[in-house]
Design a protein that fits this description.
Layout: H1 4-23, H2 31-51, H3 80-90, H4 93-103, H5 110-121, H6 125-128
Length: 137
C-alpha cells in the first residue's frame, strides 16, 4: 500500500527521467522545446538552492538534523542539496551525462558517453553541404 507522498515522489521521478530521455534522444529538438525542458529542470534546482540557503559553515536549516540531542563534538552535516548540485555543476558534461544515464537505468561506460557526445556534437556534413546529389544516377 502506498500513500500519497510515495506516489507523488514516484511520479516526479518518472517525469524527470522522461525529461532526461528527451534531452538524450537521437531526434533533434527544436529550440522552443529545448528551452522548455531547460526551464523545467532549472526552476526546481534554483528553488531548492534558495530554500537551502547556507550559513558560513555550509549548513542549511533543513539538512543534517537528527533526533539525537546536541553534543559539542557532533557537528551537523553540510547541506546535501548544495553538495549534490555543486558537484554536478563543477563536473564536465561527460560526467554529468554518465551520472544521469546511470540514474535513469542506462548502464553505459564513461567512454561510451564520451563517444556519444563527440558524435552528437559533430555536424551532419552530407545533409548540410549544398550541391551534393542524393541520387547517384
Amino acid at each position: 500500500m502506498s500513500n500519497v507522498w510515495t506516489t507523488r515522489y514516484r511520479l516526479l521521478c518518472e517525469h524527470c527521467e522522461e525529461l532526461a530521455k528527451k534531452l538524450s534522444g537521437e531526434q533533434p529538438i527544436t529550440p522552443e522545446v529545448l528551452e522548455e525542458l531547460v526551464v523545467q529542470l532549472l526552476a526546481p534546482a534554483l528553488t531548492l538552492l534558495r530554500q537551502h540557503a547556507m550559513n558560513k559553515r555550509g549548513q542549511c536549516k533543513f539538512c543534517g538534523w537528527t533526533r539525537w540531542k546536541w553534543r559539542f563534538w557532533r557537528r551537523r552535516r553540510p547541506c546535501t542539496v548544495f553538495q549534490a548540485l555543486d558537484l554536478t555543476m563543477r563536473r564536465g558534461p561527460d560526467i554529468a551525462w554518465w551520472q544521469l544515464f546511470a540514474t535513469i537505468g542506462n548502464e553505459v561506460s564513461l567512454a561510451d558517453v564520451r563517444e556519444w557526445l563527440s558524435e552528437r556534437n559533430q555536424p551532419v556534413a552530407a545533409a548540410a553541404s549544398p550541391g551534393v546529389a542524393d541520387d547517384p544516377g
